[in-house]
């Protein structure tokens, strides 16, 4: 896919900010912290065992950012670069805390179907094999945005395998482009999409189960 | 042109293509088949809506709450030190 154009734009947008940081502009730095810090901690928490470890990792990340900002070449978007540092430091920390997950786990496809096979009619069905046995239920929008449901979605994301969790957080929660996510996590376009697909499918299954339980008396 | 309608996509295949579809990663032919399938399959339309609603719900989880004051103070001190201020 042609990625060069949006890519370039994102990086150009970052330039004034990078210059401001280099020049010691405190307001620019605090603005960046305000925008990214909470998301970084959340992201780090997907790799390490405790909230405290995640906070440590993010603080070390900021130190690395300040050290590296003069040499930052803008080959990726600023936030991709920063979250890439979070991911690296968090993995190192996880290894130290014996929660070592090999890098390749980020790229693994667990191969499970998006929807459980039992939801479809068997292939042997004379006419409708491979089609829905029963249509999925439409979700009431107000229910989906309720605090209770959102907490449920958050939990479902937290339970995902590491790579899936990292990708869905950056794409769907933080609203990043696939390009930015690939830069931050060093995964290929296809792997990024596979992880996103597995993650969204799993979270959907959990929401569906939850809605189903709620609608039954 | 007389040509038999292409065999309809199975739902079990369609649900695996939803992410590629939303990402704009389906080749033209597959995209057309997917969209044709949606025309005839209310179940897959609901499924796609669910995924879209879920993405919207996920987006509302983004926490832009400011970093705790203590953290901000610490980071600001780090920033000043790094810039020699």
Describe this structure in words.
The complex is a heterodimer of chains A (217) and B (85). Chain A has 217 residues and is mostly helical. Chain A has 2 domains: 4-96, RNA polymerase sigma factor, region 2, helix turn helix motif (Rna Polymerase Sigma Factor, Chain: A); 106-215, Arc Repressor Mutant, subunit A (Orthogonal Bundle). Chain A has helices at residues 4-22, 26-45, 51-68, 78-96, 141-144, 147-158, 162-173, 178-185, 189-215. The longest helix of chain A has 27 residues, at 189-215. Chain A is elongated, with a radius of gyration of 20 Å. The relative contact order of chain A is 0.12. The model of chain A is unreliable at 1-5 (pLDDT under 50). With 85 residues, chain B is mainly alpha-helical. Chain B has a single domain, classed as Arc Repressor Mutant, subunit A, CATH 1.10.10. Chain B has 4 helices and no strands. The longest helix of chain B is centred in the middle third of the chain and has 18 residues, at 42-59. Classes of the chains: A mainly alpha (217), B mainly alpha (85). Chains A and B meet through helix 2, helix 3, helix 6, helix 7 and helix 9 of A and helix 1, helix 3 and helix 4 of B.
């Amino acid at each position: 896919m042609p990625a060069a154009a949006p890519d370039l734009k994102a990086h150009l947008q970052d330039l004034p900010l990078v210059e401001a940081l280099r020049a010691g502009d405190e307001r620019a730095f605090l603005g960046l912290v305000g925008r990214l810090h909470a998301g970084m901690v959340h992201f780090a928490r997907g790799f390490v065992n405790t909230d405290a470890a995640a906070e440590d990792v993010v603080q070390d990340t900021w130190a690395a950012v300040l050290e590296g900002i003069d040499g930052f070449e803008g080959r990726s978007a600023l936030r991709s670069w920063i979250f890439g540092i979070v991911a690296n430091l968090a993995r190192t920390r996880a290894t130290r805390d014996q929660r070592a997950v090999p890098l390749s786990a980020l790229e693994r496809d667990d191969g499970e179907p998006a929807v459980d096979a039992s939801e479809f009619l068997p292939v042997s069905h004379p006419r409708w094999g491979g089609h829905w046995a029963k249509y999925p239920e439409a979700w009431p929008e107000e229910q989906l945005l309720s605090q209770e449901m959102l907490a449920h979605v958050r939990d479902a994301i937290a339970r995902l395998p590491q790579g899936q969790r990292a990708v869905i957080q950056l794409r769907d929660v933080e609203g990043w482009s696939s390009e930015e996510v690939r830069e931050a996590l060093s995964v290929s376009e296809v792997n990024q999409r596979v992880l996103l697909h597995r993650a969204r499918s799993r979270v959907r299954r959990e929401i569906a189960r939850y809605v189903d339980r709620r609608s039954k008396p | 042109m007389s040509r038999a309608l292409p065999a309809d996509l199975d739902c079990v295949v369609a649900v695996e293509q939803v992410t590629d579809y939303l990402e704009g990663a389906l080749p033209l032919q597959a995209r057309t088949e997917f969209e044709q399938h949606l025309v005839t399959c209310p179940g897959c339309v609901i499924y796609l809506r669910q995924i879209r609603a879920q993405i919207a719900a996920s987006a509302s989880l983004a926490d832009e709450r400011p970093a705790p004051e203590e953290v901000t103070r610490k980071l600001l001190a780090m920033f000043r030190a790094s810039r020699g201020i």
